[in-house]
Design a protein that fits this description.
- The structure holds 2 protein chains of 2 kinds.
- By secondary structure, chain A is mostly helical.
- In chain A, 60% of the residues lie in helices and 6% in strands.
- Chain A is built from 6 helices and 2 strands.
- In chain A, strands 1-2 form a two-stranded antiparallel ribbon.
- By secondary structure, chain B is an alpha/beta fold.
- Chain B is built from 11 helices and 13 strands.
- Chain B has a 6-stranded mixed beta sheet with strand order 5-6-7-3-8-9, with helices on both faces.
- In chain B, helix 5 packs parallel to helix 6.
- The longest helix of chain B is centred in the middle third of the chain and has 18 residues.
- The chains are: A mainly alpha, B alpha/beta.
- At the A-B interface, helix 2 and helix 3 of A face helix 6, helix 7 and helix 8 of B.
């Protein structure tokens, strides 16, 4: 998968990498057992310091998303961290309320919010590149 | 462990009573990447020249690999690679002659790395005259002279100065590869914040002859913010700068802009409490904005004064 970073973003580069990898796992573009690009390769691909890549991978490993197998490389974990369902649902509901109130304040209708969610779903499962192509058409 | 580079209370003035460096202290460990930032005239080049033993500090001590760069210049220069801001290459010779000279000077010269880099930079015409090189190519040749003896410390003074974006990126790609393959420590000065972000590591900001900020880049991102406070709430910048965590405050039109250490939420809460007013905004900012807030001048609206 292709990662994109923006050095002038206020989010540190290692966080940008973490976010894209977790999004790819959430959307199924990266599956359990898939091999990740090596530190060195990714560092040279993105033209960023090797330590930045290492930091992103280390944090993802600590969170239980990926694992390093010595001498073989870094892989998406066979069993991904299982979050507490009820706690997650609570947070999602709170986020949904916030999303809806923001949309209604902006004068949007419910159907438009659903459309935005569908768009986000496509982006998550097909990758940002796919949705960009769609936009430019 | 001995730091590979150590500045202690460095003072240097070019005009009596107007110090460019006024007590600069920091050190670098093996394999560390450090970006030296600051406005034009803030003393970045002066400091680098002191590390290279090209200038004496008027007070303070400098040690490279634990050695004085003016006391034993050969021992130090053997282990350093240096690309100056205004690199001067001998215009009368060609690339092959220049490298032959360096191979003679540096016993550790790596001819394999030389060939790899020549190939990478498409500098195939080894007999190419130096005076015929473009600015970008000359910079690449200078970089090769600085790295092919596999230094433990690479010092780049504004490596990207005057290069086009593509040449800058190629230069950066090479530096990243060196980091990957050699683990060389790099001290570089730059005005290109995106390049600083890409090279990562630690940032030292010089201002007013002193070190104003010395932190890891990630910490700067995650633990600093800019607070915007109505001008009427505080009498002057010094009052804000006395608050805990405040690094710098300056007036910008009808607001104070103050750089604080801390997350935006925490800083906003503390400010609301200590100043007793609402309407304070705190935001995380990219490095470029932080740089401007830390060393930029006051901007007063003419109409309001």
């Amino acid at each position: 998968m292709q990662l994109l970073i923006n050095p002038s973003d206020e989010l540190p580069i290692y966080r940008q990498i973490m976010r894209q990898i977790t999004e790819a796992i959430a959307g199924g573009r990266l599956k359990s057992g898939d091999k990740l690009t090596s530190h060195r390769e990714l560092s040279e691909q993105l033209v960023i310091a090797p330590l930045t890549v290492k930091k992103a991978y280390d944090e993802l490993e600590a969170l239980g998303f990926i694992e390093t197998q010595r001498g073989r490389g870094t892989f998406v974990c066979a069993t991904l961290p299982q979050p507490d369902y009820e706690k997650q649902m609570e947070q999602i509901q709170a986020a949904a309320r916030k999303l809806l109130s923001q949309a209604y304040l902006a004068g949007l209708r419910f159907a438009e919010v659903v459309k935005a969610l569908e768009e986000a779903e496509r982006e998550l499962t097909k990758g940002p590149a796919a949705s960009q192509e769609k936009e430019s058409v | 462990m001995t730091p590979i580079l150590e500045f202690q209370n460095i003072v240097r003035a070019f005009k009596k009573g107007v110090p460019v460096l006024d007590g600069v202290t920091f050190s670098m460990q093996e394999g560390e990447v450090l970006g030296l930032l600051g406005r034009n005239g803030s003393g970045k080049t002066t400091l680098i020249r002191i590390a290279m033993g090209m200038l004496f500090p008027q007070a303070g001590t400098v040690r490279v690999f634990g050695i004085s760069p003016t006391g034993d210049p050969v021992a130090v220069k053997k282990r350093i690679g240096y690309v100056a801001e205004e690199q001067v290459l001998p215009t009368g010779s060609n690339i092959a002659e220049l490298f032959a000279f360096h191979r003679y000077l540096f016993p550790t010269w790596d001819s394999k790395l030389e060939r790899q880099l020549l190939d990478r930079f498409s500098l195939t015409g080894n007999a190419q005259q130096i005076r015929q090189l473009s600015k970008g190519q000359a910079r690449q040749v200078a970089l090769m002279c600085a790295v092919c003896h596999r230094p433990e410390l690479l010092i780049l003074d504004e490596p990207a100065g005057g290069l086009d974006p593509a040449a800058r990126r190629e230069f950066l790609e090479t530096s990243i590869q060196l980091l990957n393959r050699e683990g060389t420590a790099i001290l570089f000065s730059s005005h290109h914040m995106n390049d600083v972000e890409r090279l990562g590591g630690r940032v030292v900001l010089l201002d007013d002859g002193k070190v104003r900020l010395d932190r890891q880049l990630d910490q700067i991102h995650e633990d600093h913010c800019v607070a915007m406070i109505p001008r009427s709430a505080v009498p002057d910048a010094a009052t804000l700068e006395r608050l805990p965590g405040c690094l710098r405050a300056r007036p910008v039109f009808d607001d104070w802009h103050a750089v604080f250490q801390g997350t935006p939420d925490a800083v906003r809460r503390e400010l609301q409490e200590s100043l007793g007013l609402d309407g304070i905004r705190c935001v995380s900012v990219p490095l470029e904005e932080l740089f401007v807030e830390m060393v930029g001048s006051s901007r007063l609206a003419e109409a309001s004064s």
